[in-house]
Each structure stands twice: as C-alpha cells, then as structure tokens.
Design goal:
The two termini are 59 Å apart. The chain folds into 2 domains: 74 residues, no CATH class; 32 residues, no CATH class. Helices cover 36% and strands 22% of the residues. The chain is α+β, with helices and mostly antiparallel strands. The strands form 3 sheets. A 3-stranded antiparallel beta sheet has the order 2-1-5. It has 4 helices and 7 strands; from the N terminus they run E-E-H-E-E-E-H-E-E-H-H.
C-alpha cells in the first residue's frame, strides 16, 4: 500500500505560524540547526525564517494534541480524548497477553499419568488390540 502523502513535521514559529515540511527535508534542517551550520536565517519552502523565532520542530501527533487541548478536550489516563466537561467512564484495557494466556491455560489434570496409562493398558487388554 502506498502513502498518498509524505510524513511531515511542523516548524512552529514564535508568532504562531506553522510551516509543515516533509520529514526527509526536515532531517537536514534539524541537523543544520543542531550543529550550528546555519546563519541567522534559514530558507524553508520559499520562506526566509529567522532561526531565533523557531520555537520547535514537532511531530503531527504533538501538534494534534495541542489543538485538542486548545479546543477544551482532555486526555484521560487510559489514552482516550474527552470533550470539555465530559466525565471519564473508561475502563482499563486488559493486557492482551493475559487474555491469551488464560485462553490457552492447560487444563488441570484429574488423574496422574500413571493412572491414565494403566487405564489405557486395561482397555487394550480387554479390547484384544
């Protein structure tokens, strides 16, 4: 399956402007900023940006969380977003591995192995197999 769009990150500016850049291009920008190989200005998608005005470079998930919080939503301890004033009725999600272990838990033995072998032996003798 092919992606319709490239993964992107957001360059957030002090004045609130968001510049969305493809992840492969942003890596070069991040490297240059981190190593100090940039002057006072940086050209990003045709925009000339003063590097002191960059507040951060963020993943889309982080930007989505900021927007949700601004809209009054909140995230409960179970990772579910709720609207402002909505009560959380979420239940803890059980660990899937615990459920699987419970399903495939070996049955308790009622008889010992020796007892089962003796029963089988008697059956074979009476059935003349």
């Amino acid at each position: 399956m092919t992606n319709l769009t490239n993964k992107q990150k957001c360059i957030k500016m002090r004045d609130g402007i968001e510049i969305w850049v493809d992840e492969d291009k942003i890596e070069r920008i991040e490297t240059d900023l981190y190593s100090g190989n940039v002057g006072k200005f940086l050209k990003v998608q045709g925009n000339l940006v003063n590097i002191v005005d960059i507040t951060g470079i963020y993943k889309p998930e982080t930007m989505e969380e900021v927007v949700r919080r601004k809209n009054g939503e909140w995230k409960c301890p179970y990772g579910v977003w709720h609207k402002r004033g909505q009560e959380c009725n979420c239940k803890p999600i059980e660990d899937e591995s615990k459920k699987i272990k419970e399903l495939y838990k070996p049955a308790e033995r009622k008889n010992s192995h020796e007892h089962n072998m003796q029963t089988l032996k008697k059956y074979i003798e009476t059935a003349n197999l």
